[in-house]
């Protein structure tokens, strides 16, 4: 399962949702969904890159993969 670290990264960088919308050009709807751990199942690499660039971090910092323990 992939979980979002976006909320944490935004807090660390002291960036609000409105500020991230402004500096990334990504829609409010996409950012709000990406902040939730289970609400986003797909996001283009271009969108992730815009968010990461706006937060001065790497795309891999925005999400983490948890191993599926059922396997």
Distance between the ends: 12 Å
Apparent shape: globular
Specify the number of helices: 5
What structural class do you assign from the helix and strand content? Answer: mainly alpha
The CATH architecture can be named as Orthogonal Bundle
Order of helices and strands: EHHHHHE
Which strand order spans the largest sheet, edge to edge or round the barrel?
1-2
> What is the CATH topology classification name?
434 Repressor (Amino-terminal Domain)
- The percentage of residues in β strands lies in 5-15%
- The CATH homologous superfamily is termed lambda repressor-like DNA-binding domains
Mean pLDDT: 87
How many E strands? 2
Into how many domains do the coordinates divide? Answer: 1
The Cα radius of gyration reads 12 Å
Give the tags.
mainly alpha; 434 Repressor (Amino-terminal Domain); two-stranded antiparallel sheet; 71 residues; 2 strands
Give the SSE layout:
Layout: E1 2-4, H1 6-13, H2 17-24, H3 28-35, H4 45-54, H5 59-62, E2 63-65
Antiparallel strand pairs: 1-2
Short description:
The chain is mainly alpha-helical.
Would you give an account of this structure?
The chain is mainly alpha-helical and 71 residues long. Helices cover 54% and strands 8% of the residues. A two-stranded antiparallel ribbon has the order 1-2. The chain is globular and about 40 Å long. The two termini are 12 Å apart. 14% of the residues are buried. The model has no long low-confidence stretch (mean pLDDT 87).
């Amino acid at each position: 399962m992939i979980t979002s670290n976006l909320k944490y990264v935004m807090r660390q960088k002291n960036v609000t949702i409105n500020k991230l919308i402004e500096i990334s050009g990504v829609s409010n709807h996409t950012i709000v969904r990406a902040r939730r751990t289970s609400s986003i199942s797909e996001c283009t690499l271009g969108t992730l890159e815009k968010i990461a660039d706006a937060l001065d971090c790497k795309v891999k910092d925005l999400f983490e993969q948890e191993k599926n323990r059922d396997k």
